[in-house]
Amino acid sequence: xxxxxxxxxxxxxxxxxxxxxxxxxxxxxxxxxxxxxxxxxxxxxxxxxxxxxxxxxxxxxxxxxxxxxxxxxxxxxxxxxxxxxxxxxxxxxxxxxxxxxxxxxxxxxxxxxxxxxxxxxxxxxxxxxxxxxxxxxxxxxxxxxxxxxxxxxxxxxxxxxxxxxxxxxxxxxxxxxxxxxxxxxxxxxxxxxxxxxxxxxxxxxxxxxxxxxxxxxxxxxxxxxxxxxxxxxxxxxxxxxxxxxxxxxxxxxxxxxxxxxxxxxxxxxxxxxxxxxxxxxxxxxxxxxxxxxxxxxxxxxxxxxxxxxxxxxxxxxxxxxxxxxxxxxxxxxxxxxxxxxxxxxxxxxxxxxxxxxxxxxxxxxxxxxxxxxxxxxxxxxxxxxxxxxxxxxxxxxxxxxxxxxxxxxxxxxxxxxxxxxxxxxxxxxxxxxxxxxxxxxxxxxxxxxxxxxxxxxxxxxxxxxxxxxxxxxxxxxxxxxxxxxxxxxxxxxxxxxxxxxxxxxxxxxxxxxxxxxxxxxxxxxxxxxxxxxxxxxxxxxxxxxxxxxxxxxxxxxxxxxxxxxxxxxxxxxxxxxxxxxxxxxxxxxxxxxxxxxxxxxxxxxxxxxxxxxxxxxxxxxxxxxxxxxxxxxxxxxxxxxxxxxxxxxxxxxxxxxxxxxxxxxxxxxxxxxxxxxxxxxxxxxxxxxxxxxxxxxxx
Length: 699
Ligand code: IVH
What we know:
Number of helices: 25
Largest sheet: 7 strands, antiparallel
CATH architecture of the largest domain: 2-Layer Sandwich
Bound molecules: 2-(butylsulfanyl)adenosine
Oligomer: single chain
CATH superfamily of the largest domain: DNA ligase/mRNA capping enzyme
């Protein structure tokens, strides 16, 4: 390409890159809603820096490569930092670490034999702030902003730590403190708190945050400090400046620290939380070892970190090294190689799991991630898919969470062409064709077909488990074998598997393993038939639980069994009749009815009965303080509602009655109990208070 054309193309590209970087900065720093992933952003900045290096005439003083990103927002008062809050140079390789070390010793005029002492710290991924303390009192706090001008968020910072996430921002410092100290550190959200907070936001119908950094920034940069005070923010201190205190001064004078290590120790004494993962390293080789340890170890830390900050420990050396326009010369940030890659989604489809839940799965062009080729990830559920706004055909960033499980980080919306399509869940199961439902309040779509092969293995083992039909010996492997060979399509088929088929199934693994201790296939087959025969003699509650009806766990199955008495009445119960059952809410009633109305399911139940399954009516709990007792509840209970108390008693085999008579065994008297209590006393019926009642429930 002729030089002019080359230059023109570079100029166009540089302008384009600057515009995109500025837009991304605005979204990230001002709106707290990123539009680019970090790797993408870094790539753009690097490309721009390369163009500017090749064409110095294109470099502008306001280029994003020349200044600290993050203009302060107009929403807040400005604070001019006494000392600018600088950014850190990013490096990624051993060579760059060696170069950093070599430059430090060159600038300090140190010989080969002198090892520079460093402190290595996890790079915290939150929001850098400065806290000013005068005579030990917190007087002003600000964000970094553009490095020179920050935003005044004093009121918000005062609330950091109120939720007890960590010590937060102390109002007053402890011990002997310099007249003024400027403490710098990171406001961040620990992973655990981030997840809890997002769950809460989702429950309240809000928009969750994309990552802990944005959540921390969004929480701190609130106009109303009351909002901030409810967010579980933490603060970790990593720097302190004392105006006028020269490093290397008398050790006793507060603020005259000789090393970073001493400074951090002092911050701890002042009452700040410092990072226990920081480590002193004697020389760059130890820094590399720390970095290698952290490459794995960081995933176990309570917060996200994607790198290591390396700082010269000696503060006098630091002063002599000074800073360039944007970065100090005494520190650098080593970033772990990006764990994310961009790829394109080929298709999204619904995978049917064992419980009938349909999970959206994305197939994408294979990419190498953390040492393995990956081409598939799940999106968990529809809400997650919509929240991430992932479309079929999208370019997406993928990573392996904890370096293991592939996941889609975010779509690269900039690369959309208009051809991308949202994925819609199928109305019928892609495997068996039964209706697919997503009930209100549920996060997932479910296949309602009891005979769906995709669900069958899981359903069979659920059906056979001890607490359900108790078919001894029918586990995962055997169930899979039965389904694989087409011997079993639903629960009822289990009772029709011929002896010879079991015999064959049991002889297969034996041949391969040559396990001398294994029983003879004939014996195993007979044992299985016997177990199946025994399981026919069961109870209604066990059968209802075994059927795997959505929302019907063991407890609900027991309630339903007691309420309806026999299977036919249950199968024909309308939604309204189901609603009349204690503990059954509208959702559960709807789900149960959807299940009992499905012709496939009705057929399976009929065939179970035809095979000889005999569910006995429910036996009432025969032991415990409430078994067979008539109980009257009166007055208010602090721990539970009247309905709940009634349910608890009934669950324990008791009967709850509305009025006190000679037949009453027990009266539970809560707050403000009235005439019923008097009557009980006059009849000599046993009366207990709430505390005693709760204790009896525990028995
Ligand atoms: S020291 C100039 N220590 O990194 C010295 N910074 O890119 C910079 N950061 O704005 C401050 N962890 O938000 C320091 N242990 C750590 C850090 C850390 C994260 C952030 C901080 C700063 C940015 C610089």
